[in-house]
Amino acid sequence: MQLLRFLLISLILTLGIAAPARAITLLRDPDIEYALRELATPILRAAGLSANRVDILVIDDPNLNAFVVDADSMFIHSGLILRMKTPAMLQSVIAHEAAHIANGHLMRRPINARNARTAAGLGVALAIAAGAAAGNGEFAAGAAAGLQGAAMRSFFSHTRAEENAADQSGMRFMKGADVDLNGSVEVMDIFRGQEALSVTRQDAYARTHPLSRDRYRLVRQLAGAQGAAPAPDPQATYWFARAKGKLSAFQRSPKWTLTRAGESGFQDVKLMRQAVAYHRQADLRRALAAIDGAVALRPKDPYLHELRGQILMESRQIKPAVAAYARATNLAPNNPLILGSYGRALLADGQLAKAQQFLDKSRARDGRDARVMRDLAVTYAKQGNNGMASVLTAERYAMVGRLKDAKIHAKRATDLLPRGSAAWQRAQDVLSAAQDAEKRR
């Protein structure tokens, strides 16, 4: 599991103001993201959305919240995932957010940046996320969008009409996907009473998704009208256990995890959770025994091989880690997070040309991974290509909001790279953004 911290680059690039000290942390884990996609796919299809297009990213925050900022990116707080007790509950959250996309509720949000699949677009999304986490989502989102006054105040929060429409559409999507509608009722039960609290005491979800007795009655009515609840989908049950199990294993104490490792009833999930707990206790022997047991049950599961690679890599067992990541890459040759981890292990092993190959491939598939940009810069520098190393470093610093450092490396890159080349132009873009921000201060 990778923890990637992003400062609010969008606020800097679009407005030229100083970035807040608080950073957003994305939890990038290929296993968890795949599990969430498995849970989301039937919902998104029922909503008429592309399951391959909508990314679901996890924010490391104990608050309960989920939101969308464009048609391609959905963000869920880790605290909300851990609070869900059933797959239907988590799928109801996904369905509700998918409804905001499908119903066009984002059209009134003129975000002044590119798609959130890009680094700059992700900055906008995380600017909004940081505001929500800090209890000031209206300001952060409004600033990122370049809005003023009343428009700023209303930017982030959905209206009551939108919430009612999203409830109805989301539950229709759940029904179309054969998901128990009672999941929506159970989620709503968590937030009952939030309206009676002051804004500062409300959960982030309640601040951005207005609650009311009418909404609660409507959700209960729709759930009651479904008749007999559909039987739980075994696949959804498994991937829910997998996502929540791995997330909790990294976020809870090892002792807590070990006492609850088998609660899902899936032996491979139990072993995976034990492997994470033992690894966090620096017990390599037990960690490897547990993950090898899980691999034996699912030998073609790339995400278990990826976790084995992480355990070995973080235990400084470089060559075995390379072998584990190679196996994961063979099983999932297009997963950018696995490709990036494999490239990182090859870099540590001194296989520079091969490391560059896989890191380049990872970056081409997902340009939002700051660790890949860092590793690529190191790889180029060790091969004597200081120009490429500088432009990658400039872009990484720009993406995390360190524009002064980005400017230094961008200047260096423009001096080293062939004038007019694609890489030189990338350095010019960073340099221009940094200079524009300086002028606005």
From TrEMBL:
GO terms for molecular function: metal ion binding; metalloendopeptidase activity. TPR repeats lie at residues 302-335. It comes from the Bacteria. Pfam families: Peptidase_M48, TPR_19. Residues 30-220 form the Peptidase M48 domain. Signal peptide: none annotated. One of its GO terms (cellular component) is membrane. The keyword Phosphoprotein does not apply. Its cofactor is Zn(2+). Keywords: Hydrolase, Metal-binding, Metalloprotease, Protease, TPR repeat, Zinc. One of its GO terms (biological process) is proteolysis involved in protein catabolic process. This is TPR repeat-containing protein YfgC. The lineage of its organism: Bacteria, Pseudomonadati, Pseudomonadota, Alphaproteobacteria, Rhodobacterales.
